[in-house]
Every structure is written in structure tokens, then in C-alpha cells.
């Protein structure tokens, strides 16, 4: 059956796909619209017998007996659970078995399939479509969270300037990777649920065809798939990690980026400079003590500190690997 058919459009012309054809060829067992019926009859490769479809639908089509090809299966064997013909019923194979009219049994099958059809249309298909919608919403939320997280990472990266650009890019790369992994998982689930939805819709169309079918053997072979299709997948609840910015502590930042080391020649120069600075510091301290009466003690100490820092040489910075 053409998958483009709607749930209500069960029958179509086998030649042009026109919905609700009024005619049927009993020889070829196909449905025909009025336009295609004439063309079909003109095909002289075989004989044709085109009649109104209402006439054919009112006549039950019994399955052929596998053991007696000239006989139709008009009975149902309750012990063997198969359709049989009258001749089979009188055979030794079915001696002592209980029989029912096949039409009566098929009618009960159609009633059961009708309930399945209602379940498929009213709940199972709807639940699966809702799950598919949930997946689409989660993907949209993941995209939104991704952009928010990347923005937060960028803002924090600006504070760390060039020294932490590698860290910033790594964080962005990690969250993009996690996003891609989760999108891939949701896409896989979406593809799976789309396949299941297609399977349910095909099942619905098959059951609808079964309702309109005259083929009793086909109806007899019907098996419900509602329980199989009823189970919806477990909700994934996929989320992305969010970026949390830590306070930037200078001492911690220094520990992360490297330590202060010096070459041997620079160390000797530094020791000499330290001695000179110690002598100068003493002079500064003496002068400062003379002016202590006129200045605040705290300001004098800060000034002394500043004076000492001015003369300290800058050491070489070696980054930690």
C-alpha cells in the first residue's frame, strides 16, 4: 500500500491511485476507477470480470484448503486452531475435534482488531508523537544551553586575558563535544522513535485494510501488535553541563601558571642588589624616623615599603609545564 494514503483513504485504484474506486476486477483481484476500468478490460492477455466494488465486498472470500485445493476452508478447528474445509473435518486428522464456522471466528477477530485500531489511533500513536516532540524540545534546549554556556565561558575568559586563552578554548571544546554527543544520542533516539511511529502508522493502515478486506485467510492470520508497540522508550532527560566561573585568586593563578626562578648569574646580581638595597633601606629608615613626629606612622610604613619595592629587580618567570 502506498504510504501516502491517509487513515481514512483505505482503498485506491491500483493503476492510478485514485481514492475510493467504485469498481473491482474479480479475476485480477484489484480495485479500479471508472477511467482505468476501460483500459484494464482492453488488456486481452487474460480475461477480466469488472463489477461494482459493493458487489464484491458483500461476498466473503474463503481461503483455499492446503490439503484439498478445490475446496474452500469454511470451518475453524478449535483443537488445531487452523481453518479447514469440510473434507478435512471428516478426516482422521481432525476426528473428535470441535469446529466452528470460519466466518463466526473471523468476525471475533475483526472485533478484536477494531479495539486494537482504536488503541493505536487514540493512545499509542499519540504517546509516541509526544515523545518525539519532547526530543525536539530537548534538542532546542540543548542548543540554547550551549550558547549560554559558551557566552559565560567567553566572559570569564576575558578576565583571564591571553594567559588562559587555551583553558577557555578547551572548556568550549569540551562542552561542544558533550553537546554533540548528547545531540547524537537524541538524534539516534529521534530516528528510532520516528521508525516506530512509521511502523505504528503502517500497522494502522494494515488494520484498516483488514477491516475492509474480504480475504478471510488474511483476517485469520492477523496478530495484534498493540502490546509490542505500546511501550514508549524511557525518557532520556539529556542535559548539558553548565559553566561555573570561579573567583580569580592571584596567588592560585600564579601557582597554576608557574613559579619564579632565576639563572645563576642573575642570582649573583640580585644578591648584590639586595645588599645595596639593604643599605639604602637603612638610610631611608633613619631619615624617616627623623620625620616620624610630623607624619602618621601608618603612612610612613607604607612609604618605606614602596621605596623598598622600587629598587627590587624583576626576576625571570618560568612557566610550569
Proportion of residues in extended strands: 5-15%
Main β-sheet, in a few words?
A: 3 strands, antiparallel
Q: Per the principal axes of the C-alpha atoms, what is the gross shape?
A: elongated
Low-confidence stretches: 1-9, 307-321
Order of helices and strands: EEHEHEEHEHHHHHEHHE
Helix count from the secondary structure assignment: 10
The computed structural class is mainly alpha
| Mean of residue pLDDT values | 76
Strands of the widest sheet, in order across it, are 2-1-3
Q: Domain count, please report it.
A: 4
For the termini, the CA-CA separation is 67 Å
Spatial extent as radius of gyration: 43 Å
The helix content, as a percent range, equals 55-70%
**Strands, count:** 8
Protein described:
There is one protein chain. The protein is mainly alpha-helical. 57% of the residues lie in helices and 7% in strands. It folds into 4 domains: 59 residues, no CATH class; 36 residues, Double Stranded RNA Binding Domain (2-Layer Sandwich), CATH 3.30.160; 120 residues; 70 residues, no CATH class. It contains 10 helices and 8 strands. It has a 3-stranded antiparallel sheet. A 3-stranded antiparallel sheet has the order 5-4-6. Strands 7-8 form a two-stranded antiparallel ribbon. A hairpin with a 4-residue loop joins strand 4 and strand 5. Helix 9 runs antiparallel to helix 10. 13% of the residues are buried.
Amino acid at each position: 500500500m502506498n504510504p501516502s494514503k491517509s487513515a481514512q483513504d483505505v482503498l485506491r485504484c491500483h493503476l492510478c491511485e485514485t481514492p475510493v474506486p467504485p469498481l473491482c476486477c474479480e479475476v485480477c483481484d484489484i480495485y479500479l476507477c471508472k477511467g482505468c476500468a476501460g483500459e484494464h478490460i482492453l488488456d486481452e492477455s487474460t480475461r477480466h470480470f469488472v463489477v461494482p466494488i459493493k458487489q464484491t465486498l458483500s461476498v466473503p472470500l474463503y481461503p483455499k484448503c492446503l490439503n484439498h485445493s478445490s475446496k474452500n476452508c469454511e470451518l475453524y478447528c478449535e483443537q488445531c486452531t487452523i481453518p479447514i474445509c469440510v473434507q478435512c473435518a471428516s478426516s482422521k486428522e481432525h476426528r473428535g475435534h470441535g469446529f466452528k464456522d470460519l466466518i463466526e471466528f473471523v468476525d471475533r477477530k475483526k472485533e478484536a482488531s477494531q479495539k486494537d485500531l482504536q488503541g493505536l489511533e487514540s493512545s499509542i500513536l499519540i504517546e509516541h508523537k509526544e515523545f518525539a516532540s519532547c526530543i525536539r524540545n530537548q534538542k532546542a534546549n540543548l542548543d540554547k544551553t550551549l550558547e549560554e554556556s559558551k557566552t559565560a565561558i567567553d566572559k570569564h575568559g576575558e578576565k583571564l586575558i591571553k594567559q588562559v586563552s587555551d583553558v577557555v578554548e578547551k572548556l568550549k571544546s569540551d562542552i561542544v563535544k558533550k553537546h554533540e554527543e548528547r545531540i547524537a544520542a537524541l538524534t539516534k533516539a529521534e530516528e528510532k522513535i520516528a521508525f516506530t511511529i512509521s511502523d505504528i502508522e503502517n500497522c494502522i493502515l494494515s488494520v484498516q485494510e483488514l477491516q475492509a478486506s474480504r480475504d478471510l485467510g488474511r483476517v485469520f492470520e492477523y496478530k495484534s501488535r498493540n502490546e509490542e508497540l505500546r511501550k514508549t522508550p524511557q525518557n532520556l532527560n539529556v542535559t548539558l553541563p553548565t559553566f561555573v566561573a570561579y573567583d580569580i585568586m592571584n596567588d592560585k593563578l600564579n601557582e597554576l601558571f608557574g613559579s619564579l626562578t632565576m639563572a645563576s648569574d642573575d642570582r649573583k646580581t640580585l644578591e648584590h642588589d639586595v645588599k645595596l638595597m639593604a643599605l639604602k633601606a637603612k638610610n631611608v629608615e633613619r631619615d624617616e624616623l627623623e620625620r616620624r613626629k610630623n607624619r602618621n606612622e601608618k603612612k610612613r610604613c607604607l612609604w618605606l615599603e614602596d621605596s623598598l619595592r622600587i629598587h627590587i629587580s624583576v626576576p625571570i618567570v618560568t612557566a610550569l609545564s
